[in-house]
């Protein structure tokens, strides 16, 4: 079965600093990959997705992610973090070979931003 | 509608009671999913609907959990004889071409 690993449970960065959140997946075929953000008490908002093509994808709020097949990674980056980026971030993968297209999520990384 | 609507947003129930959670997906989205989010467990898949049928129920944790969908639209997740370990946020999502939209969830607290 596919799995998603987010090795960092909690990251703290200063406002204006750069950010990279790590995500590794275990899956045989080409995955559909996603990053979601969840603010306290809110649902999940899609930041960006990778289905195929250019391995560097741009998302909302200035985020980007790079798909690296050789490393089975899909790390999320932002060059300059804003205080409003403090939230929990989830990496997810779809098993495109199965019938249900269900999302499998990582455990999440909580981001704190120091003013 | 413009988004996925879930009700109630919060539910407190006594152990042993039954609860019903409702999800109103985006109009035209044929696929609907239920997930559970709890501390320490992350986001767990519960069940998938395509239209009114549920071809994948593999995530339902016990036979106390059931779900249905009618008219290819609204879905109801029912938990019978609730237990304290059922306390969690239950999220619903609908999708079109593998693009998911999530609702804000129902926070269930079993006391």
Secondary structure topology:
The complex is a heterodimer of chains A (115) and B (111).
Chain A: E1 3-5, E2 10-14, E3 19-21, E4 24-26, E5 32-38, E6 45-50, E7 56-58, E8 64-68, E9 73-78, E10 87-94, E11 103-105, E12 109-114
Parallel strand pairs in A: 2-12
Antiparallel strand pairs in A: 1-4, 3-9, 5-6, 5-10, 7-8, 8-9, 10-11, 10-12
Chain B: E1 5-7, E2 10-13, E3 19-24, E4 31-38, E5 42-50, E6 53-56, E7 65-69, E8 75-79, E9 88-96, E10 99-102, E11 106-110
Parallel strand pairs in B: 2-11
Antiparallel strand pairs in B: 1-3, 3-8, 4-5, 4-9, 5-6, 7-8, 9-10, 9-11
Brief synopsis:
The complex is a heterodimer of chains A (115) and B (111). Chain A is mostly beta strands. Helices cover 0% and strands 50% of the residues of chain A.
Question: What do you see in this structure?
Answer:
The complex is a heterodimer of chains A (115) and B (111). Chain A is mainly beta. Chain A has a single domain, classed as Immunoglobulin-like (Sandwich), CATH 2.60.40. Chain A contains no helices and twelve strands. Chain B has 111 residues and is mainly beta. Chain B has a single domain, classed as Immunoglobulins (Immunoglobulin-like, Sandwich). The chains are: A mainly beta (115), B mainly beta (111).
